[in-house]
Amino acid sequence: ATPTSIMVGTGRGAEMGVLFRRGEALQSLRDVEVVALDKTGTLTEGRPELTDLSPAPGFSPDEVLALVAAVEARSEHPIGAALARAAEAKGLRLGVVAGFEALPGFGVAATVDGRRVEVGADRYMARLGLDVAGFAAEAAALGAEARTPLYAAIDGRLAAVIAVADPIKATTPEAIRALHGMGLRVAMITGDNRATAEAVARRLGIDEVVPEVLPEGKVAAIRRLREGGRRVAFVGDGINDAPALAEADVGLAIGTGTDVAIESAEVVLMGGDLRGVVNAIALSRATIRNIR
Ligand code: ADP
Ligand code: MG
Fold this sequence. Notes:
Layout: H1 3-15, E1 18-20, H2 24-28, E2 34-38, H3 39-43, E3 49-55, H4 61-72, H5 78-89, E4 97-103, E5 107-112, E6 115-120, H6 122-127, H7 136-144, E7 148-154, E8 157-165, H8 172-181, E9 185-189, H9 194-204, E10 208-210, H10 218-226, E11 232-236, H11 242-247, E12 250-254, H12 259-264, E13 267-269, H13 275-291
Parallel strand pairs: 2-9, 2-11, 9-10, 11-12, 12-13
Antiparallel strand pairs: 1-13, 3-8, 4-5, 5-6, 6-7, 7-8
Helix pairs in contact: 1-13, 4-5, 7-9
């Protein structure tokens, strides 16, 4: 590509809200075969809501929600805000929290009014030595509806299965259809559990799913997608996505995402949704075609 065509392409991108931080990305995007997408905040709004709460025998829903929300109000994860909002909407009084701890990719824990409260994924409960088998049918049903099942333990006893749902952005289905129309494979990488991730993928026609990825595992997930010499673009928004954005052949950050993601990406999508990916690849193809 000539410097002039790269300059023109970069300028057109800027007009469409696609910022090429490095001109080379305009060339490397042309050869991409797989577009890998982060789920939370990229495909979805990143603003989950509480949808379900079933307590185990001996626990009441409000008692569980109040304890869980007290802990989650301290969390930086969007799941935390969802549970805190739900308790607030019900006017529940939150107790005094001590010893808050976040375990990225697993869940959160603290003491609330002297009671030990732990909230998180099934793998977190497994780590605590708690068996969630009693909730297996319920969790499977929630996952099939694209909801994320979580578990609460109170004083070391399994107290409830809770679910949150994060709406798919209105622009996502059309963007994925367009990527398919361009002959690309679409993959999804997420920390969410397999059943939920697969339900979301099915709704959107996503070709490959890499679920249950721990925050530090996203780079390995990109490496796996790149096996066999496939050229992979990765689109993400979160702090956890930064290393994967650097590892991919091309990293694209959602412009409404975190600063760390934006700084690690070669392309920034100012529109805040996946139509920017479609525009970026179309522009790359048009620009490079003209000069080859
Ligand atoms: P993602 O960004 O895809 O949600 P994370 O690694 O942040 O991935 O989270 C993975 C999983 O860990 C969540 O789906 C949830 O089950 C659990 N988890 C993480 N943080 C919390 C939290 N604050 N409360 C409850 N569960 C959590
Ligand atoms: Mg995200």
